[in-house]
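Renewal narrative, Specific Aim 1. Our central claim is that a sequence can be written position by position from structural information alone. The example that follows is taken directly from our test logs and has not been curated for this report. It begins with the structure tokens describing the chain, in the order in which they were read.
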């Protein structure tokens, strides 16, 4: 039997049992985990991880970026408490994945940002506000922030500028880094946070992978290079790699 047919066979059996016992019956955690670990599900999981790692690997060739670690977080969630009622989620289970790559930055961060912006990694958010201004998420804005030390020119009010970052036009990649704090701010308020909190104990299924297996901390990278940069994939929850639909729903 093909892996995909095995997955849908499990779904059909669970759906039939649920309908026979009443609309409020849902698969238990063990049944959901079985759905998440079929050969067909694993094939989709592997393909998604390859896709995300390929996105992140585009940064490895940027001069001035020194790889620290790559982390992948993979989570499957079950249906809402609405069960099979109209207001319930449209799936029995949804699985999504996200990934991040953290680098130490050698040299001037603005030069590294220019290299990222000038590369063919992706199409970054464009500056649509015209000369003398810049759009958040664009390279123009990031460079303007550093040039102005985080404060708008006096003719623009001299107000603090929002934190800089880069965002791809498709929304699947974002870049953050250590930037100059505003006067009176604590230094850590403008630093990449050491907040990687991937959990491998989420029911019915979750998985965390780090390369290397014992990655350096962000603090270690900062102590070595002075500046830290993080690249994140942002499409995980909006683009599940696996959806098991509810009975009668064709989403999947």
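The sequence written for that structure reads:
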């Amino acid at each position: 039997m093909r892996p995909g047919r095995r997955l849908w066979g499990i779904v059909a059996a669970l759906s039939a049992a649920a309908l026979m016992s009443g609309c409020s019956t849902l698969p238990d955690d063990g049944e959901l985990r079985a759905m998440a670990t079929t050969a067909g599900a694993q094939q989709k999981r592997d393909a998604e991880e390859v896709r995300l790692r390929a996105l992140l690997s585009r940064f490895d060739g940027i001069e001035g970026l020194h790889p620290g670690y790559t982390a992948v977080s993979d989570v499957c969630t079950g249906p809402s408490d609405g069960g099979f009622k109209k207001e319930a989620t449209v799936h029995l289970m949804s699985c999504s994945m996200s990934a991040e790559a953290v680098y130490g930055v050698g040299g001037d961060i603005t030069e590294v940002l220019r290299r990222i912006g000038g590369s063919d990694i992706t199409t970054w958010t464009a500056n649509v506000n015209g000369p003398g201004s810049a759009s958040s998420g664009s390279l123009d804005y990031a460079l303007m922030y550093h040039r102005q030390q985080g404060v708008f020119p006096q003719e623009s009010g001299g107000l603090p500028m929002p934190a800089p970052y880069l965002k791809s036009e498709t929304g699947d990649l974002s870049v953050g880094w250590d930037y100059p704090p505003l006067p009176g701010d604590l230094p850590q308020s403008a630093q990449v946070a050491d907040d990687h909190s991937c959990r491998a104990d989420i029911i019915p299924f979750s998985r965390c992978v780090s390369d290397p297996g014992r990655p350096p901390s962000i603090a270690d990278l900062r102590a070595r290079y002075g500046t830290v940069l993080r690249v994140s994939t942002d499409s995980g929850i909006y683009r599940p790699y696996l959806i098991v639909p509810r009975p009668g729903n064709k989403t999947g």
